[in-house]
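User: Predict the complex with FE2/S2 (inorganic) cluster.
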Amino acid sequence: MKVTSYRKPDSGGFAFTAENEAQADAYIARYPEGRQASAVLWLLYLAQDQNGGSIGQEQIDYVAAYLGMAPIRVHEVASFFTMINERALGRHHIQVCRTTSCWLRGSDEIGKACLEEAGIETFGGTSGDGLFTVSEVECLGACANAPMFQVNDRDYHEDLTPETARAVIRALREGGTVESGSKSGRVSSEPPADSRRTLLADAG
Ligand code: FES
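Assistant: Here is the predicted structure with FE2/S2 (inorganic) cluster placed in the model:
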């Protein structure tokens, strides 16, 4: 059932497009009446998308009013999840995973290579040409293909080495198409061809 007991925001600088408003209401309708705040992450993501990839106080206030929440509570959610950006980013957002599997497989070196190749001093920074932002994030769920990074909330580049990480960034800079997926030739996360075996073979 559609929730209708919350106040819609007063008109201000930012407002959902008609399409996004319908989408926001569809998200809210997934939750029981009185629990519309559960849709906050969905609405933040919509606002971010509409706002060109990041949000500011205006979008936080808008989402808060839309859901009948205190803005500080919306900010708490926005600042916790790395999928929400409270600052403008470069055209390509490189999110380097640094959690255990990736770390054990060399994510420190991947991160360093990304910063150097993009021309950025510290994580979270944006290159002078506005092309790249490089961030460190926690596990992106591709642990079997560690180390990896994600580009623009969409493309996973896996089984990286510092060289292949640099090559992805160079290709993005040149405006080329960069195929996502494993850089070691794996189709998904199967073992390397020379170490595949079956239980039958193990049983002799
Ligand atoms: S540890 Fe990097 S994707 Fe899970």
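The chain has eight helices and five strands.
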